[in-house]
């Protein structure tokens, strides 16, 4: 009886091993996604990066930050604006890290080793500075040096960095990005929906952004601020609306009709129904309120 049991056991074991070994054949090929892109085209990465780099930031900027600093009036009470745990407080933080930050870090990483992609790399570094400076201006100390490296380095809980260290690196990044531009290397064309591959305009924007950052630290570090102010001015700044860092929607499209040439804040927060553009009455009422406030508080308004 034991002999029969052992024989049956070994037969079943052999059959299982046979099926198990058979399952290994073609396993890697079957489980490899045909849609996976291991080496993405940077032009295809740049367009959505520019299009979505500030999408949905208005939840935080428009609902909470702007009313607190007096840029717009709000129907919310002060208590509601400062209430801990409110959805909008951290929405900009979450959106930026989950979307454009990780994408621009990947964009920079994929372009840093190839000399022919040096201009793409510079554009990526400038965009990253733009994204990060808005974050740190709102939230102070934030993850920066390790941010967006979950896929690349498996850093899933990046450390928070001091705002001063972040600002110092932002200046460095802008300076190095501008210096690295190479007129003999390719620039993006239609995929760059901000400047259409104009190296001159990217440099102007980088220096203008450098000037903005320098002015913001002028009261706390005059020496550093003046150094970068001089560098920015000497490098060349934006001179007209043609140099604006802006994404315009296609003419005739829904968003092109209601947003092109208009601050997003007016569109979303002056229309009670949030279904279209703000009315002239609503915008006029806002400016009248602001003017009256300035006059009553200080006797003048700028």
What would you call the structural class? mainly alpha
Largest sheet: 2 strands, antiparallel
Q: Please tell me what the overall shape is.
A: globular
Please give the domain count: 2
SSE succession: HHHHHHHEHEHHHHHH
Note the quaternary state here: single chain
Q: CATH topology of the largest domain, which one? A: Serine Threonine Protein Phosphatase 5, Tetratricopeptide repeat
The count of β-strands is 2
The first-level CATH class of the largest domain is given as Mainly Alpha
Which residues form runs of ≥5 with pLDDT under 50?
A: 265-302
| Spatial order of the strands forming the largest sheet | 1-2
- Helices, by number, come to 14
Fraction of residues in H or I helices: 55-70%
- Radius of gyration, taken over Cα atoms and rounded to an integer in Å: 27 Å
For the record, the CATH architecture of the largest domain stands as Alpha Horseshoe
Describe this structure in words.
This protein is mainly alpha-helical and 302 residues long. It folds into two domains: 42-247, Serine Threonine Protein Phosphatase 5, Tetratricopeptide repeat, CATH 1.25.40.390; 254-302, no CATH class. Helix content is 60%, strand content 1%. The protein is built from 14 helices and two strands; from the N terminus they run αααααααβαβαααααα. Strands 1-2 form a two-stranded antiparallel ribbon. It is globular. Mean pLDDT is 78; it is low at 265-302.
């Amino acid at each position: 009886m034991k002999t029969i049991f052992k024989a049956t056991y070994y037969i079943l074991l052999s059959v299982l091993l046979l099926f198990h070994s058979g399952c290994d054949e073609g396993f890697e090929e079957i489980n490899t996604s045909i849609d996976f892109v291991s080496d993405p085209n940077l032009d295809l990465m740049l367009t959505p990066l520019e299009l979505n780099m500030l999408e949905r930031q208005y939840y935080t900027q428009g609902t909470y930050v702007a009313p607190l600093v007096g840029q717009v009036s709000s129907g919310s009470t002060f208590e509601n604006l400062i209430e801990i745990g409110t959805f909008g407080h951290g929405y900009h933080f979450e959106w930026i890290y989950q979307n454009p930050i990780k994408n621009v870090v990947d964009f920079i990483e994929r372009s840093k080793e190839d000399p022919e992609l040096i201009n793409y790399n510079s554009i990526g570094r400038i965009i990253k500075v733009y994204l990060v400076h808005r974050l740190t201006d709102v939230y102070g100390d934030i993850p920066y040096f390790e941010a967006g490296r979950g896929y690349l380095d498996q850093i899933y809980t990046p450390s928070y960095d001091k705002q001063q260290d972040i600002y110092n690196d932002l200046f460095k990044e802008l300076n190095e990005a501008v210096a690295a531009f190479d007129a003999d290397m390719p620039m993006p064309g239609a995929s760059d929906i901000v400047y259409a591959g104009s190296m001159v305009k990217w440099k102007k924007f980088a220096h203008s952004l450098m000037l903005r950052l320098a002015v913001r630290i002028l009261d706390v570090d005059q020496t550093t601020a003046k150094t970068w102010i001089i560098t920015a001015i000497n490098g060349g700044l934006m001179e007209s609306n043609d140099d604006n860092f802006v994404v315009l929607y296609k003419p005739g499209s829904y968003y092109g009709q209601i947003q092109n040439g208009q601050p997003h804040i007016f569109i979303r927060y002056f229309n009670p129904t949030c279904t279209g553009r703000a009315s002239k009455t609503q915008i006029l009422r806002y400016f009248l309120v602001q003017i009256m406030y300035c006059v009553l508080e200080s006797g003048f308004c700028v």
